[in-house]
Design goal:
152 residues; single chain; mainly beta
Length: 152
């Protein structure tokens, strides 16, 4: 399977499928041909682009591919009532795996180098490694780029 990347353009506030990616360029998957600055980005333009890695999994409820940065809502029945949490699909380089990080601790992940794994063991205790395609209690409700309000 060839991984299908997608990218978010911060200034244009839009997500797009990636056709080509290299060390110094990203090209949008479009039928419009290559148009530098519009659908082909290089040099300083890359600062405005976030590339999202595919997890290789499909969400069963929506039949959509799951990407880094996607946000899932999970509802768990507790004795005191239903508890709703939001979790971000996050690539943890130090563990070479995708994790669901609760939105409340996602900023901690972004602001720290996790190479000192012992200092951040609590983060991994709160995170989960899921097969997103099987767990039906998870609802895909957006991503951190197009729906930043989900991080609050």
């Amino acid at each position: 399977m060839i991984p299908k990347f997608k990218a978010y353009h911060k200034k244009q506030n839009r997500m797009f499928p990636v056709y080509g990616i290299g060390l110094d360029f990203i090209t949008e998957d479009t039928l419009d041909g290559v148009d530098p600055g519009t659908n082909c980005f290089s040099g300083h333009e890359l600062e405005d682009i976030e590339v999202l890695r595919p997890t290789g999994l499909i969400h069963k409820k929506t039949n959509k591919e799951i990407y880094e940065g996607d946000v899932f809502r999970q509802e768990v029945e507790e004795d005191y009532g239903d508890e709703r949490t939001y979790n971000v699909v996050t690539w943890i380089r130090e563990r070479a795996a995708f994790y669901l990080i609760p939105t409340g601790t996602y900023e901690v992940y972004l602001d720290n180098d996790l190479e000192n794994e012992e200092a951040f063991e609590w983060l991994f205790d709160q995170a989960a490694l899921y097969d997103f395609s099987i767990d039906v209690s998870l609802d895909l409700c957006g991503n951190i780029y197009e729906n930043p309000e989900l991080l609050k």
